[in-house]
Amino acid sequence: MTYLSSLVVETTSLDGILKIQPPTVFEDFRGKYVETYNKRLYMQNGVGIDFIQDDISMSRKNVLRGIHGDQRTWKLISCLSGCFYLLVVNNIPESPQYKKWLAFTLSAENHTQILVPPGYGNGHLVMTDSAIFHYKQSTEYERETQFTIAYDDPSYDFWWPSRDPITSIRDQGIHQ
Fold first, then answer.
1. Domain span holding position 138
2. Is residue 159 situated within a structural domain?
3. Is the pTM of this model over 0.85?
4. Vertex 79, ends 40 and 159: CA angle to 5°?
């Protein structure tokens, strides 16, 4: 039997990006229970964001979604099923960390969450047969306010664990 009951929040090398392990994971012969969010615990641990919308995307292996973001939305990203490679990039031109990026592996097994602040873009590549990408947002989704960075833009020097991902026209950085 496995049982954890504390929120773990770690800073990263990019300002504002936090790596979080959720407060409760319980596993026994019946399966697993994971508490993915508890406002009181998150606030007590310095994550005082007022999340107002939850979204998921379901994708198959080798699908790359993103890189998207905007200047006003916080996102708390997690993986509900499968596994994906998450890339987060600073897209704030006046920041000393502009164009700097980090990558994480999120899975239904490791329960890792990544807090992404406004001004950052994120994209993910599915590593398993399928995956469910979940995120909480601090604002309602408005596509017209988003920026897109091409996943293969050479000025960022991104590294992806696939040379030929499945992408949409938008995710290639082509505006429709």
1. 12-22+50-171
2. yes
3. yes
4. 120
